[in-house]
Amino acid sequence: MSAADDTAPANAASTADTRDARAAWALTAPALMLFIGVLVIPLAMTVMLSFHDWGQYKGIEPVFILKNWHEVATDPYFAEMFWRTFRIALLTTLITAVLGAPEAYILNRMSGRWKSFFLLVILGPLLISVVARTLGWALLFGGNNGLVNKLLMSLGLIGKPLPFMFTETGMVVALAHVMMPFMVLSVWAALQRVDPQIENAALSLGASPPTIIRRIVLPQIMPGVLSGAIIVFSLSASAFATPAIIGGRRLKVAATLAYDEFLNTLNWPLGAAVAVLLLVALVMIVVGSNALIERRYAEVFR
Amino acid sequence: MRTNGPLALIFHTIFVVVMLAPIVVVCLVAFTPEGYLSLPTTSFSLRWFRTIANYPEFVHAFWVSLGLGALSSLVALLFAVPAALAIARYQFRGRDVLAALFLSPLMIPHVVLGIAFLRFFTSIGIGGSFAGLLVAHVVVVFPFALRLTLAAATGMDRSVEMAAVSLGAGDWTLFRRVTLPLILPGVISGWALAFIQSFDDLTMTVFLAAPGTETLPVRMFLYIQDNIDPLVTSVSASVIAITMTALILLDRFYGLDRVLAGKSDPGR
Q: A54: which strand partners?
């Protein structure tokens, strides 16, 4: 009997475990089925589609060829387009980091009522359609006598009007505006974990404000800046509405090119190859930088 | 060290002005009396707001967006609430993989999702239909519904449930009368965030919408492609006004911080 006594609690524990696991799978089963049926399968089909053939008159042929991938890899048009996509995303990320991080810091030092008011003002645009926000920039840029150019010229910053519409400059400005709330939110979240007394301590020990910013504040909000940067970068690299409206039909990025291949040219396999490449590149960049950040800031996250 | 210096305040002022400028400009231009895009200099006119009525496709697209947003976030919750309860309460093999899968629509570019859904729906014969749009939106808003429900379920005090069970409550009664009311703030916040995501989505929906199932962002985008005139600014201004009214109402009756954070009222 002693052997049975020994195993009984273990058995009870393991049946409880199995029962828990069964309950858990029963509860997640509907969502899992939905995701396999309507996410995993369509994505797999898209990857397959990128290996299919296409002709202007014959349409899509379900054969396995590398034609599209060969075209994407060798045609300089695609290299230029992907380079533009990532250049725009990188510039947008830099601008949001350089302007968004100080703004989050300033916001955090405001008194309660002003703080929540301006937080709402800065995060509120997230709830307004990207189309409406980009339209606003199109109006502000508006040709050579748009408001932005008038303002820059009256301030004496530029001598003659800068082209904003249908240029990468315009795309970056509008994208930075669209993405800014994500950066402010991310840095804001990091600031919430910082003890303000550390700054006071540094001040009492004779550190100057620039030293405090550089040696106390910056290291502590860096994880927030970096995670914000990852979000902004991946959203900008796959952005569609802003590049389409500001960039027009000529200046293409990955998302607008895929859109044209699918809905105008109807070369679905080529469009699928562009989309799959964008997805793979983004996943690699995001996973890679995540690993880098976690190694660099392991002690901060802990 | 705890107050902002003048330089900081100047930076802040410029920052806020730039953040608001495009939105303010859209709203101002919407009131122009002219037939072209211009800031109203001499007089304000509601001309372009009245013109919306002559374009029933904008009104129709608004209702499509509203219905799609409400329905897809509701359906997403039907799948997300049980999944969130399972992930919050049980340690089981595959838990992390499932959580990552369920949050993956946040990380996949919407243009890729649009293409994948277009391909899939066309091959099973529901391309361009409302049903297709609905399923696609359910998947895309699922992470928002899941995250906020998860936050509520993780922070929930389970002793109330145990008390109910000890008093003889069955599974369904337990869920309906104890668990659901306790996680309801998180569930409602999840619904609201999911609704906003669905209502605003352009990148994915532009691939899936057909005439008749066009949502408002899609309708506006396609309109801008062909012509930019004050009409589209008055439509934008109307949507901005509706959004702000909804936010103010939500804040008045429910508390905006509760919606955005998915927290329950500590006083209750």
A: A60
Residues A287, A273: Cα–Cα separation, whole Å: 21
**Out of A32, A49, A127, closest to residue B119 by CB:** A49
Cα end-to-end distance, chain B, whole Å: 38
Q: Is B4 within 8 Å of A133 when comparing Cβ atoms?
A: no
Strands (E), chain B: none
Spatial distance between the Cα atoms of B256 and B240, rounded to a whole number of angstroms: 17
Among partner residues B101, B119, B224, which is closest to A46 by beta-carbon distance?
Answer: B119
Nearest to B86 among A27, A268, A283 (CB): A27
Interface touch B11/A133, C-beta < 8 Å: no
Q: Is B262 left (phi over 0), alpha (psi -120 to 50) or beta?
A: left
Residues A36-89 have pLDDT tens digits of: 999 999 999 999 999 999 988 888 888 899 999 999 999 999 999 999 999 999
Q: What is the pLDDT of residue B197?
A: 92
CB pairs under 8 A between A and B: 227
pTM of the predicted structure, to 2 decimals? 0.90
Question: Average pLDDT for consecutive 10-residue bins of chain B (268 residues)?
Answer: 82 96 93 80 84 91 96 97 94 91 94 96 93 97 94 87 90 91 90 92 96 94 88 92 84 68 42
Top residue of A139, A147, A230 to mutate, by most chain B CBs within 10 Å, is A139
CA distances from A100 to A88, A121, A162, A185, B43 (A): 17, 14, 24, 9, 37
Cβ contacts (< 8 Å) between A262 and chain B: which residues?
115, 118, 207
CB nearest A121 (choices: B16, B109, B139): B16
Burial class (CB in 10 A: 0-12, 13-18, 19+), A197: exposed
Cβ of A268 and B119 within 8 Å?
A: yes
ipTM of the complex: 0.89
Identify whether the C-beta of residue B57 lies closer than 8 Å to the C-beta of residue B64: no
